[in-house]
């Protein structure tokens, strides 16, 4: 059996007395899509920051593409990360921003230009590539972030809300791109509140609540564990597994 592309072993992050991520254990096979769900403040972003070496674990360990998550220098070339608000330089054009990202990854200019052109075309941004990002809409800036995350053809891609702010056509392109990547060898860790996106794309879904992984399984299996059985949708599963133990379930 091949090693998982992402592995968390007791991965924990505390901020003072607050436990943001509490002893997470999971493994994501290479070439699959892992949908990561959870209520606001559940620990999704912190988990992605741990797995992308942007913050160190307080306890436990993680490995991505066979590299310990504490080895930032070795990990960076192997991963791409789209944060919820992609970091961009407003004064650069879209093309310049992506050239800058490509150079950080050590791509040669010719190779970078070919990749940038093809990805911008896919995301329908080529005609605006020479405009400054300060003049872009939210969705256009998001597209730059999406392209930047996949520019160096990473083994593992972490996407935080990749379709938010995108029009339906662009959102479709992102979903198709994620499916294409996973149909190759890439692994995608996808965090979103848009449940139909996860339902469509994820091979496995993990639900985090209050820092704890409260449910995990393939979408159909998770639905069949809901109280109403296999007729349940993902929203019902989400409501059930993240319900406060003391609070009544909605419509219960
Ligand atoms: N730098 C920080 N310092 C202190 N507490 C933090 C820090 N970052 C996150 N937290 C806390 O950790 C918990 C998890 O936050 P996180 O941002 O990971 O949640 P999330 O699931 O991504 O939420 P959302 O869906 O709202 O984006 C929250 O209680 C948050 O307040």
From TrEMBL:
Alphabetically ordered keywords of this record: ATP-binding, Nucleotide-binding, Transport
Domain (ABC transporter) ranges: 6-235
UniProt-listed Pfam families: ABC_tran
SMART domains found in the cross-reference section: AAA (SM00382)
Gene Ontology molecular function: ATP binding; ATP hydrolysis activity
Cited Gene3D superfamilies: P-loop containing nucleotide triphosphate hydrolases (3.40.50.300)
Transport as UniProt keyword: yes
Family classification: Belongs to the ABC transporter superfamily.
Name this polypeptide is given: ABC-2 type transport system ATP-binding protein
UniProt source species: Halobacterium jilantaiense
